[in-house]
Amino acid sequence: MDKRIGTVTIIITDRTRQAQKVNQILCDFGEMIIGRMGLPHAPGDLHIIALIVHASTDEIGALTGKVGALAGVSVKASLTKV
């Protein structure tokens, strides 16, 4: 299966309840994550995580699906073929 490289952006609006769950999912998919940057945004208590990933579309879809299923969490991916 062809691998893709791209970005995954995660926005957490309910950090108190969801941060630990998001981090566990990212740990579970750690082999596909090339880089990670997290930024808190004080107004509105938003937290943004930007990932650089390298994996198949199925693997990236599994990651974004699990993260996106959490309440108070939004996720978007942008991919290109390597």
What does this structure look like?
With 82 residues, the chain is α+β, with helices and mostly antiparallel strands. It has a single domain, classed as 2-Layer Sandwich (Alpha-Beta Plaits). The protein has helices at residues 15-28, 57-68, and strands at residues 3-12, 33-41, 46-56, 73-81. The mean pLDDT is 93.
Note the main attributes of this structure:
single chain, 82 residues, alpha+beta, Alpha-Beta Plaits, four-stranded antiparallel β-sheet, 2 helices, 32% helix, elongated
Largest sheet: 4 strands, antiparallel
Oligomer: single chain
What best-fitting shape do the alpha-carbon axes yield? elongated
Q: How are the strands ordered across the major sheet? A: 2-3-1-4
- The beta-strand count equals 4
Number of helices: 2
Helix content: 25-40%
CATH superfamily: ACT-like. Chain A, domain 2
Distance between the termini: 12 Å
What is the helix/strand order? EHEEHE
Mean pLDDT: 93
Category from helices, strands and their pairing: alpha+beta
CATH hierarchy class name: Alpha Beta
Our Rg estimate from Cα atoms comes to 12 Å
In terms of DSSP E residues, the strand content is: over 45%
Report the uncertain regions: none
- Overall tally of structural domains: 1
